[in-house]
Design a protein that fits this description.
single chain; mainly alpha; Arc Repressor Mutant, subunit A; 6 helices
Length: 177
C-alpha cells in the first residue's frame, strides 16, 4: 500500500495560489470577451483554431485535439457557431464518417473584431504583470505541467466520458481525444 505524499504547507500555498491565478485569469478573459463581443472564450478558441488552419477548416477530430473541448462538447459548440453563421460543417471527402468545420467569412469578421480586445485583456491580466524572465519561466513551467499532465492521462477509452470536465486551467480531460 502506498503512503500518501501530503503537500507541505508551502506546496499547499503554491497550489492554491496557482488555482486562484488560473481561475482569475480565465474569468477575466471570459468576462471581457462576453462583455465586448458576446463570445465565450471557448467559442473564441474554436474560431482562432479554424482561422489558423489551411482554408480555415479542420476535421472535427483535429479541432477537438487542439482545443479545450471534448468531442461531444465541441460538437455542441460548433452547432451553436453554425446557428450564428460563423462556422459551417461539411462532409469529409476522404472519409464519409468524418466532418470538417469551416470558418465562414462572417465568423472571421467576428473573430477579427473580438481579437484586439481579447489580446489587450491577455496583456493586462498576464503579459504586462510579468517580467521577461518571469514570462520565460512561465513558458517553461507551463510546458512541464502540460507534459506531465499528458503523460499521466490513462489510455483513451479508460476514462468515463459521460460527464466531461475541464482541468484546472481549462484543459481537456484525459482521454477526450
Amino acid at each position: 500500500m502506498e503512503t500518501t505524499r501530503w503537500l507541505t504547507a508551502e506546496e499547499q500555498r503554491t497550489w492554491r495560489l496557482f488555482l486562484t491565478a488560473c481561475q482569475s485569469l480565465f474569468a477575466s478573459i471570459d468576462a471581457q470577451l462576453l462583455h465586448e463581443s458576446g463570445l465565450p472564450h471557448g467559442y473564441y478558441e474554436i474560431l482562432v483554431h479554424l482561422s489558423e488552419a489551411p482554408d480555415r477548416a479542420l476535421r472535427m477530430t483535429q479541432l477537438a485535439t487542439v482545443s479545450t473541448f471534448s468531442k461531444s462538447r465541441l460538437s455542441h459548440a460548433v452547432s451553436r457557431l453554425e446557428a450564428r453563421g460563423w462556422v459551417v460543417r461539411e462532409d469529409c471527402q476522404t472519409d464519409r464518417r468524418g466532418q470538417i468545420a469551416r470558418l465562414t467569412d462572417e465568423g472571421f469578421t467576428v473573430l477579427a473584431g473580438a481579437a484586439p480586445g481579447h489580446v489587450e485583456q491577455v496583456r493586462r491580466s498576464l503579459i504586462d504583470v510579468l517580467t521577461q524572465e518571469q514570462m520565460n519561466q512561465l513558458g517553461e513551467i507551463s510546458a512541464a505541467i502540460a507534459m506531465a499532465a499528458a503523460s499521466a492521462c490513462p489510455p483513451a477509452g479508460s476514462v468515463d466520458k459521460a460527464e466531461p470536465t475541464s482541468g484546472i486551467c481549462g484543459s481537456r480531460t484525459c482521454g477526450d481525444d
